[in-house]
């Protein structure tokens, strides 16, 4: 695990966050992660909803090695116990997951905690929530990766940008190289993607192009 002050500095500088399941890379998760991180992914989260904890820890060990080699952050989705056991840098919590104070009480100050937001009140709360290190707004567009979740769209991105908060925040949901310009024009400076990299024929090139687009926006 990266020290918490170094991890918070890396988070502040992060622009491209990737969620992947354990099957990316067609059986070679390490090669996939290396490619994505070399391309410019700053944070990599294991998001694999069906997986058992033992398998999840094995995949996290692979991602942790890759993150260590590239000096990037490793994130766990949903589960504080798994984040602790894996020595992860980040735990990501949705609105239906553990409340931030409960996760903070379990993990102490070492692990960064992020929060998903889908409405203005949730964004306003996450921007002020003690113990939350970052938040996400989405989905920007409806996405098969999160079926059935209504998309608040670019309006929520504009709302978050309008808060002028110092807390890092990311836009998520349906973002790819073709539409990232709209997300940036709406005021986001950080993005989260799944399919744009996991389903790319060349994950290195996909990450590189997205990272260049987001970093180019300032
Ligand atoms: C970085 C990031 N942002 C948002 C999510 C979504 O979290 P949640 O709403 O809890 O949905 P699931 O991913 O758990 O299905 C995320 N995982 N990561
Ligand atoms: C995991 C997730 N959370 C969302 C949210 O709005 O909180 S949208 C989403 C899926 C994003 O996948 P893709 O980049 O493939 O569209
Ligand atoms: Mg969740």
TrEMBL record:
Condenses 4-methyl-5-(beta-hydroxyethyl)thiazole monophosphate (THZ-P) and 2-methyl-4-amino-5-hydroxymethyl pyrimidine pyrophosphate (HMP-PP) to form thiamine monophosphate (TMP). PANTHER family: THIAMINE-PHOSPHATE PYROPHOSPHORYLASE (PTHR20857), THIAMINE-PHOSPHATE SYNTHASE (PTHR20857:SF15). The gene is thiE. Coiled coil: none annotated. It catalyses: 2-(2-carboxy-4-methylthiazol-5-yl)ethyl phosphate + 4-amino-2-methyl-5-(diphosphooxymethyl)pyrimidine + 2 H(+) = thiamine phosphate + CO2 + diphosphate; 4-methyl-5-(2-phosphooxyethyl)-thiazole + 4-amino-2-methyl-5-(diphosphooxymethyl)pyrimidine + H(+) = thiamine phosphate + diphosphate; 2-[(2R,5Z)-2-carboxy-4-methylthiazol-5(2H)-ylidene]ethyl phosphate + 4-amino-2-methyl-5-(diphosphooxymethyl)pyrimidine + 2 H(+) = thiamine phosphate + CO2 + diphosphate. It holds the Pfam family TMP-TENI. Its EC number is 2.5.1.3. This is Thiamine-phosphate synthase. Transmembrane segments: none annotated. It comes from Actinacidiphila epipremni. SUPFAM superfamilies: Thiamin phosphate synthase. Mg(2+) binds at residues 78, 97. Belongs to the thiamine-phosphate synthase family. Pathway: Cofactor biosynthesis; thiamine diphosphate biosynthesis; thiamine phosphate from 4-amino-2-methyl-5-diphosphomethylpyrimidine and 4-methyl-5-(2-phosphoethyl)-thiazole: step 1/1. It is an enzyme of class 2 (transferase). GO terms for molecular function: thiamine-phosphate diphosphorylase activity. CDD domains: TMP_TenI (cd00564). Binds 1 Mg(2+) ion per subunit.
